[in-house]
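Reopening this ticket.

The earlier resolution said the output was attached, but the attachment link was broken on my side. Pasting everything inline this time so it's all in one place.
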Amino acid sequence: MGIGSGCGVVLEGVHASVAALDALDREDAFLAAGAGVGAGLDVLQRRYELRLERLEVSSRLRAQLAAVEARDAAECVGFQHAMLAPDAPVHERTFAEMSAVEEIAGVLTISSGAAGAFVEQSRRVCSLPQVLEALAAGDLSWQHARIVADETEGLTPDGAAALVAHFFDPDAPNPARGAAPGELVPSRFRVRVRAWRERHHPESLQKRHAKGVADRRMEYTPDRDGMAWISLCLPGDTACAIWNRTTATARGLQGPNEPRTLTQLRPDIAASLLLGAGTSAREAAAGEAAGRTGDAAGTGAGSVSGTGSAAGSNSDIGRVPTPRADVLVMVPVFSLLGLTEEPAVLDGHGPIPASMARKLVADGAESFYRVLVDPRDGAPLEIGRTRYRLTETIKQWIRMRDGKCTFPGCSNHTADIESDHLTAWENGGTTGTSNLAQLCPKHHRLKHARPWVPDAASKNGPPGWTSPTGRHYKPEHPDREPTHWPPGILESPAEMPDWPDVPEVLSGEPPGDRFIDPDELSPADPLWDDFYAMAFRLPPDPEMNWQLLLM
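Inline output:
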């Protein structure tokens, strides 16, 4: 892309949006005047719809102006470099760029650091033509474009191009399904982009996770008004379990006599658990000394065990227990067996290393429910046999399929979200997966109070929604991918005489009697009992020697 190229195309969208705003404003002024308005027109309803339309056009215009700003910021630095001699020393180029950044900071009235970050993000967005085109068309916001810029940082050019193609090119192999990037709220879009990046990053998730484990830390930051922040950087399963435990405990404490909100209860519970988890080091040392004295004096086992319990509880403080929270772990079957290292998915968190998923299963975390996925398309297979009963199975299945509240833009994924009938039971709705979806209490009430109409759900996808003004919001699909097959299964058809030919084998749909289609098995089939009773021989956990992964 040359310097200054294509600016007219970007500005065309700005002109069109300004003209659309002007037309909407003139129609609103006409309705407000009241002269010549037809008797059959609901003026208040139409003026309400006009404001929604103006908000929509204004949002598109902001995105288009952001494209103009991004291109100008990137080209400012480009022009500064172009004005230097080709053989100019490095320090001259550095000062030229610094000067441009400082001028951009002055023009936008932002700090030098913010201007530098803006220029870097603008460069990255401009280096991704499909993202810049979508921004210039107003199809996504600057926040969405910045997410792509952030998540492509550290990727190779080919890796960044593949990420962009997955989300912005409908003709790409296995393109993203469901809502387009600009139709998702930025936080949900970042979740999807980050999940794809984790699966396709050139460096394995296990190795990157090992680096993160080595960098785990706790930070303390004083704040104003006598307050302070405590931040923990922990492995995802531990952090997710802490969050769910404090949330569940907080909800249990809520009642008519509890004035604290859920937000206030969480930190109070966390502080109580931390400060009451064990004795101090001095108290523990005193307990150990008392135990030794009592033992030497012959006071008996009772005395020793009494003091030893305090010391013992303190000695366990540094050991992180197996997380016990109501969380689903979606594990590719080959990954659970140790045949591949494909990431698993932790409900409410995202991709986790295969070793972490195997550890959760092997350590017997009773409230972590193992969910195996179909190797053909990544769709969930079946929930563990501890949740066989029909009502619980359906509830957990819907939670696994939807991942969160299905209402447009909602990110609530707490464990106590309600499973709601899309078509009410009294109106003929059935209790089946196609007529059930997750809704948080707030949006459940709204659905019954205002005509927000859900679509039918599907086996592997949540419903879309239609607003009272007729706007349709596409569902946010989980964007699953076919799981990884172990080496030697699909690549060696000669060793499997009952498979017909190579093209069919490589399609990822192995025929013959070697595999059973789980969709053909009823939930009561004894094969499920045999499968879940099977003792998995898990490979050694690579995190035990995580230093070796960093070499």
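Reporter confirms the inline version is readable. The longest strand covers residues 217-222. Residues 278-315, 383-390, 492-512 have pLDDT under 50 and may be disordered.
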